[in-house]
Design goal:
The chain has about 300 residues and is an alpha+beta fold. Helices cover about 45% and strands about 20% of the residues. The protein has 8 helices and 11 strands. The longest helix has 26 residues.
């Protein structure tokens, strides 16, 4: 696009626009503008490329590809649009950004994401373990054990990355105050990209690995646990999506479909979290819950 309009661009060109009327309020050379846009594309491409090399994220390769397409379009469209708006302008201060283009940018990014998802094909099928019922671990009296696993969500990582990149693009091209909501949304989403699930004598704990350990998403103490089971969980069919989900009769932190712990609470509600080796965690929870009930009864 730059090669097409290079000889018709003003010097400097309008590179930043206000959210009130779309007036140009920031200027720069064409080379500086290209450096910023191409830098954003290269950084986002490197991030998605690196995520594709992480073994834990490979089952979600199609969604990573979709996120890469959406991010590239979300950066490339406003970059090309800025060049076209400056095309033939005698005075860069007269250049205006039509505000209706802002939702168009979002639509273009979403459409590119859908295209990327379609081109990526179906995700690999993963074997799901059969339901383990409500077993117990053979843990001798007076001994203690702990169980811990980390689970990552490529979908949350992609969503947080897209929101953060979109906030950067909006801040560079339009207005930083307008981009704060997107950056804040990214800050709320990214902690769910990786969480640690722990079972010990205190109960079940779910905490984000990207934040200090004292900050927890959910803790279920032993005295609130009636029974725990490990079984396959269907994210969309059972919980209507991914993330921290609330449904009639229960809630859960659902980062993917597959193996998960489902805890039945004393009030009849349930709490679920998707994680590998859920049957072992559920068995240990049941063992500790039995101990807690016996001590209270004694």
């Amino acid at each position: 696009m730059y090669a097409v309009v290079a000889d018709r661009l003003p010097e400097p060109l309008a590179a930043h626009f206000s959210t009130t009327g779309g007036r140009a309020d920031g200027y720069g050379t064409a080379q500086d503008f290209l450096t910023v846009v191409l830098g954003l594309l290269l950084v986002s491409g490197a991030v998605f490329g690196a995520l594709l090399q992480v073994p834990a994220f490979r089952p979600a390769t199609p969604w990573l590809i979709a996120g890469g397409y959406a991010t590239a379009a979300g950066i490339g469209y406003p970059g090309c649009l800025t060049l076209l708006l400056n095309d033939g302008a005698a005075d860069a201060s007269a250049v205006r950004l039509p505000l209706w283009q802002l939702p168009v940018m979002l639509v273009v990014a979403l459409a590119a994401g859908v295209l990327g998802r379609l081109l990526a094909g179906a995700p690999p099928r993963l074997p799901h373990p059969e339901s383990g019922g409500a077993p117990r671990l053979d843990l001798p009296a007076g001994t203690a054990a702990g169980w811990s696993r980390t689970i990552s969500s490529p979908l949350m990582a992609v969503l947080g990355g897209v929101l953060f990149c979109a906030g950067l693009v909006l801040g560079v091209l339009v207005d930083w105050p307008a981009s704060l909501s997107l950056i804040l949304a990214a800050a709320l989403v990214l902690p769910f990209a990786s969480v640690r699930v722990t079972v010990d004598r205190r109960g079940l704990t779910v905490a984000p690995t990207l934040l200090p350990s004292r900050l927890r998403i959910r803790r279920v103490p032993l005295d609130r646990i009636t029974e725990a089971t490990g079984r396959p969980i269907a994210a969309l069919a059972e919980y209507g999506g991914w993330g921290y989900r609330i449904r009639p009769g229960g809630s859960g932190l659902i980062l993917r479909s597959g193996d998960g712990i489902v805890v039945t609470l004393t009030g009849g509600r349930t709490f679920a979290v998707t994680v590998d080796d859920a049957a072992t965690a559920a068995a240990l929870l049941n063992t500790y819950a039995d101990r807690a009930r016996s001590q209270q009864g004694g």
